[in-house]
Structure formats: structure tokens, C-alpha cells
Amino acid sequence: MKKYDKLVKNAAGRMVPTIINGEEHVPFMGVGKYKPKGRKHAPYIASSIDYPDDGNKQVASLKEALIKAGLKDGMTISTHHHFRNGDLIANQIFDIAKELGVKDLRWYPSASFPCQERLIEYLEDGTINRIEGSMNGPLGKFASEGKMKGLAVLRSHGGRYQAIQDGEVQIDIAVIAAPSADPFGNANGVNGPASCGLLGFALGDSQYADRVIIVTDNIVPFPCIPWQIHGNYVDYVVKVDKVGLPEKIISGTTQITKSPDRLLIAEITAKFCEEAGLIYDGFSYQAGAGGTALSIGNYFGDILKKNDWKASFIRAGSNQYPVKLLEEGYVKYILDGQTFDMEGIRSMRENANHVNTSPFTSYNYHGKGNFASMVDVVVLGATEVDVNFNANVVTHSDGYMLHGIGGWQNCLFSKCTIIPIPLFRDRIPVIIDEVTTLCGPGEMIDVIVTERGIAINPLRKDLIEKTKHSNLPIKTIEELKAEAEAICGVPEKPRLDDEIIAAIKWVDGTVIDVVRKVPS
Amino acid sequence: MNKQSTAGNRGPGIKSDCFVELELLPYGGIQIELKSKVKALYGESIERLANDILNVFGIKNARLSIEDTGALEIIIAARIEAAIKKIVETDLEYLFPVIEENKNATDKDQFRFSRLYLPGNSPKLMLNAGIHHPNGVILDLEDSVAPDKKFEARFIIRNALRSMNFYGAERMVRINQNKKGLDDLRYLVPHSVNLILIPKAEDADDILQVNQVIDILKKEKGINHQIWLMPIIESARGVINAYEIATSANNVASLAIGLEDYTADLGTIRTNEGNESFFARSMIVTAAKAAGIQPIDSVFSDVADMEALARNVQTSKGLGFEGMGCIHPRQIAVIHENFAPDPDEIEKAKKIVLAFKEAEAKGLGVVSLGSKMIDPPVVKRAQKTIELATKMGKLSSDWDNN
Lengths: 520, 402
Fold this sequence. Notes:
The structure holds 2 protein chains of 2 kinds. By secondary structure, chain A is of the alpha/beta class. Chain A folds into 2 domains: 31-132 and 169-249, 3-Layer(aba) Sandwich (Glutaconate Coenzyme A-transferase), CATH 3.40.1080.10; 260-494, Glutaconate Coenzyme A-transferase (3-Layer(aba) Sandwich). In chain A, 24% of the residues lie in helices and 22% in strands. In chain B, helix 1 packs parallel to helix 2, helix 11 runs parallel beside helix 12 (330-339) and helix 13 (343-361) packs across helix 14. Chain B has an 8-stranded parallel beta sheet. Chain B is elongated, with a radius of gyration of 24 Å. By secondary structure, chain B is of the alpha/beta class. Chain B has 3 domains: 4-87, Ribosomal Protein S5, domain 2; 100-339, TIM Barrel, CATH 3.20.20; 343-401, no CATH class. Chain B contains 14 helices and 14 strands. The A-B interface holds A 260-261, 263-264, 397-399, 425-428, 451-452, 471, 486-489, 491-492, 494-495 and B 15-16, 37-45, 69-73, 127-128, 131-132, 165, 328-330, 393.
């Protein structure tokens, strides 16, 4: 089977395959242009006849559960990434597959992390054919060098749910690691030694997979409350000694940056939002877990306090900082997709206004709306932005694919999307002529904030108007690019192979761009 | 054995810098080995640059290895030139053009509230110093540079003075003490420096020696603009001679105090309250004011405690200081905010400036406010206060139009 075939030019002008890993895919047609017809995908009808009346679905080991679930060549196995770099289960699944001699698996994680680096061995020996999911770090490097047998497919969090729901990806076996579960399979992320807050990324997997296995190190008697995952979707429950490493689950960047340059960018971003009138009593925002984003959230908090305003909700990635605002009463609700520290987990456990969400509620484009478009301000990162405001989050300027899309594409639907980034990173200009990989169309990106100036998308005449008499350093994006090049020099165009190693999906399931092989 | 040398920094945590190793060979032409994290984007241009520099210095046979972590061209060039000059005797220089932004001269009495110390051999920290808008940047050749790195730091500082944009900050350099400091001047005076800080100044002679070298270099290179001096008083002897130092030359613009060395000289310990240095600080302020120049306070070293810094600045301003050093960009805003004119000062300055304008309009030679005569320096000071208040957003620029 060819990894990909039949390239066409999509609406963004990028050459993309319409056949990927033997299946047909639709090229990107423009934002809001593609509307699929037909019904959603559904798993087989199950019957209580096949499940014990006493509700006890426990089996002795993960291996037994996988055998019972019918693990065989070519299947699709899904996992979630709520344990981040402290995940202990994904590697075990493929150790078992290898032991059983199973080949050509498709791994469908909501994201992969450096702790799964040793799966490279199984990608090399054919146990795993490909990864369809975000690849952070070493696995991305492996794929970038063209070493993966199948073509990687990268989707946003919302796009992952959409692909499951639409039947584009049929999950054969979902393995859901859970900090707490009962023998029936009800499970949550808020309790237990490996608590991670919630299990929202696994919701679609539980609903649509043919077989669902819950793996936990903390069996509680029925009922496991809250039941973030419903046992009614679950086939088997496995008790293991340890499901995740708490110290690595609570990782990511959870501290406000100490870098004076990043703090300056955060300060300018908050000031821009204030002067542009984006912050008001009842406003809502999303600020991620990076050091800069966290300090922007903090500055937003200061502005709320100064005016005695309340934010109606924060979309998070929560940790101690938004939790503090919630508890001080400056924010009414946290709508949380993943928790990043113990404070986030505690708050979600104790506070009814700290609500767990899923990619279905927050991001799924093929639903009857979603929350993302209701947020006033989102603050996002990027590896590159071009003069047309298109942005890249998956590859670096040298072509290496080292990051996933996460909720990034989905968040672009907010009322105002702001990307605060340094103008250059160790001589690498961030604003360039054309992004290496197109992840977000420029029409959806409103403001770029750098330490050397702010560029407002010309489409946002309202923002330009509102800030034109301010003291803010507003420049055109071309001016910013020229400034970076005056300092760094004009970069050469990196040489990439023609060979495609990954497809990038847009939120509606269409192919917006591809990633090409980095020459070895 | 072939002649070998190295220059630059490498290792964990080093970014935007490079480390070069040069070996002169008897034959075999030029071999360049480049390891760079930006090779895909700048590999060819780095090799071109390296070849050009070797060519300028007439080196035909050599092995040059470059480990680059994203250094700018001016940094890579400084490293290669330093490595060459460690083993090759030459008067040639590899110079980049002076950028437009760095061609300005500065005024003797311009505001020097904040001046940010930047270690002279750490290009990463220099790169973004200007975006925090200190009144001045101090590229330091003295205490923050290890003895074996002082030679190569001169090339970094020279290239930065010419080509790094500091966004309007006054370009200052702290030279080394004694003879080494005098030797530093060759790398500064012809290269767009605005002000030289002279460490451990103890008497007028220390200043005159520096000026002597500056004058020779200015004549030699045809430099016409003024290069200001800021002697730093860091010893008991310096404190006693403060007035002599302040009045030693016309280009002495400010008098600074360095408290770490001063308290060590006294044999006492530096405290946050600063009782041990009260006399010295008052002496510096008095000597500077008597000489008609700016008294500048020492740095505040706890970079995490912004509230303590704010109190420190208020005390400093209360004693009569007109600026202080900073060692972290986050200190700049706090220093400006607390040295800035307060509402009372602004009101007073507005009245004086309006009175001056009125007198001017009427063609009067004497400015008076109520029954009081206003001396020209007071008017000038008031104009400065207004200018500053406007610059800092504390006063609208059209304040006198209503």
C-alpha cells in the first residue's frame, strides 16, 4: 500500500494527497466550506446478555483484556494523554502486541510524549504501522526523517473527536488509563494516586470504539463517582500496580515565566487587550499552560481586579493561577479540558464551578456548535507566522515536526485570536514569507504580539481603529518581518525532500497541508 | 606544533552564541567545520562569513571549527576575530557598518535614571536589552567578565556598539581598572560609544589618564562627538576625593557610587538600610551637585524583591540621586516609576515653564513666578521634568494648550 497518492492543490494552495494510507480524504476547501452529508458512525449494538449481571468486568491483566478484545493485525488502538509524560500504559500495550506477534497496528493517541520514545523500536519492526496523533519530541523527529511505515495524520483535539464520530477513524480497541474506576468500568481522573483531573480526551474513544478497556491502579467499589467515563461503554477493567507517574503527570509549564523578555510580551498583550476594549465585565478567555500564556492570564486577572469585573468563564488548561481567580471570585466558571497541577485537580474535585469538558463540548466542529467560538480572547503559541497571518504549530523552520496541534486549531474560532511570540528565537525569525506548514489560515488569526511590536490583521479594522491612538507599538506584519531580518539576516530556504511524511487535518476533517521529509 | 586558539562560549544553557577553534596549518587551504542549530537557515551565510574573515586577515591555511547556538553575524565575526588575534599579530579589524540607530551622540545632562549592566561576554543578554527601554545599557568589561575572557569580550562589545540596536538607550561601557582599562579604549572610542564608566576612581589623575587616551584615539580616528565619563567611586579614598573627581574634566557627566567595594573597603557589611554608606552617598550627591553633574546610585542586588527595590529608589531619590544601576530588566520600570516626577513636581514644573514662556513672549530677560525670580538652570530643570513626564505618559504632550 502506498503511503499516499493522488495529490491535488487545495484551497490554501498546498499540494495534498487525496489518498492517505489507502483511504480517501477530502482536500481543504476553505474555512466553513465543507459540510459532510450522512449519519454519524456507530459501534456495534451491545447486549447486556454478554456482560455479567453483578457488574464485575475485571480481568486479570492488560494482556488478557487485549486478547479478549480480539487484538489482531491492522487494528486501530487508541489511548489518551491526560498522564502526559508520566504515562505508563501505552508502552505496555505495544509490548504485549509485540509479544503476541501482532503487526501493522495504527496507534491513535490524543497525543504522544517523549516517555513513549521506545515505541520507535515497534515502528521499526512493523508492530506499529503508524501514529495518527500529535507527536511531541523524539517520535516526531523519527517521523520527520521519513522512517515511519505509514503516513502520520495530525488532527486537532476537536478534529480527533470529529474523525471518530464521522467514522473516518474506526477505533478497534480503546485503552483508557484511569486514576479511579469501579469494576463496572465507571471511571474518573479526580481521585486516586495518579489523579490527572479529568478524562475528557478519552470520551469519544469510550463512545465509539468497538472494545473499551479501562486500566486503573485504584479500584473503588461501584459506583465510582463522578463517572466521567460511563461503565456502560466499557468491556473490561484491569487493575495494575501503577497507572502513571504523578510527578510527571503534573508537568508541563506550570509556573509564570521569569524571562524578562517573555514577561514583556505578556505585558504588551494584556495592555493591547485592555486598550482594544476586549476585556469587560463578563468577558471570557482561554490562556494555555505556557509560561507566557500563564502570565498573560495573571495580567488579565489584575485588569479584572482593578475594575472589579468578573470573567464569565475561563477555558483552560487549568492550574493554580486560574484556580486562584475562581476562588477569589473574579471568574465565575472554569471550563477545563485538562488539569496541569495539583491545585487544578483539587479545585475540579471540590468546586462545582470548575467543570470538566471534552473535545466534544469544547471543540467538535461537526456538532451543533461548540464552545470555542464563544470565547472572547484566546492566546496561542506558534512556531512560525507568515506575512498573511497564516500560522504553523507543528514544524520548526528547519522542517522538523516536533509538536502536535492540540486544541490550537479549534481555538482559532474565538472572537479574537492573539499569538504572542518572540520576533526571533536564537536567530530564527518567527515571522516569515510563507509558513513551512500551514496549520491555521491567516483569516482566523487576529493579532501577533512580539517584544518589538504588535501586528493587527488588516481584516480586523475594528481593532486597528480602537488602538490607533494608543501608545502601543503597532506596526505592519511586513515591518515586523523586516525588523527580524535586519537583526538576524535573511534566512535561506531549508531544503526538504518531496516525500510527504504527515498530513495535517483541518477541524472539519479536510487536509489543509502536509509535512515533508527532512533530508538525513 | 601548529598555532591554536579558541574563543566564545559553549555548553549547557548557552544560546545565541558560538565557540570557535582555530588552528593555523602549514598547507592544505581553509577547512571550515560548522555545527549549528540554525544550519538549515544560515549554514551557507555563516561559512561565507568565516571565509571572508580569514581572507581579510590573510589566513590561507587553517582549520576553523564553529559550534553555533544561533549567534548573530556580528557575534560570530567577533569570536573568529578574537581567535585570530590571539595567535596572529595584526592591526587589521573586521568591522560591520555602524547602524543608523547607533550614530547618535548624547547630552551631558540627559536622563540617566536606569542603566542596565550587561556582562560583556554574554551576547544573549545584550540582544534584547534595548526592548526594556533602560536609559542606558552598560556593556561591562570589568567584574562580570572572567579574566581569561576579557580579551574576546572587547570584540563582542565593539561589534555591539556599532551594530546592535539598543532602541535609544545610551551606549555605555564599563572599562577595566588601571592599564587594562586604558587598553580597552581602543575598542570603544572609534566605535560609537557614548559614555565610559571608570571603575574604582580615586582621584582626578585616574580621569585624566583615561581622557588622555580618548583624546589621542579621537584625533587618530577623526572622532568629533563628545564621549562622556561616569567615574564610579568605590573606595574610602574615592569618597574623600569625590569633588576633585567630579570636577576633573568637562566631559565628566555623572558620578556613580559602587557600594559593594566601598563597604568592603570600610570593613563593614552592606545592609538594606544602608546606614554604613549614608555618608558616602551624601558625599557623592553633594560633590556631584557642587560640580553641576548627576549623582548616580549603586545597584540593588535582590532582583526578586520589587517592593524593596521601590523603597530603595525612593530613599535614593530623597538623598538627591538622579539614577541607579540595574542588573535585571524587570528593575527598570520600578526605577523609572519611582524616580519619575510625582504630581507635585509636575505641577511646579508646569508653572515655571509657563512663566518662562510668558517672559519669552514679552521679551523679558528675567523669569519670575509670583514674587520669586527663577534662575535659568531651574527653568531648564523644569523643562526636563515636563519632557520626562510627557515621555513617561504622566502628562499629555499638549498640556500647555488648554
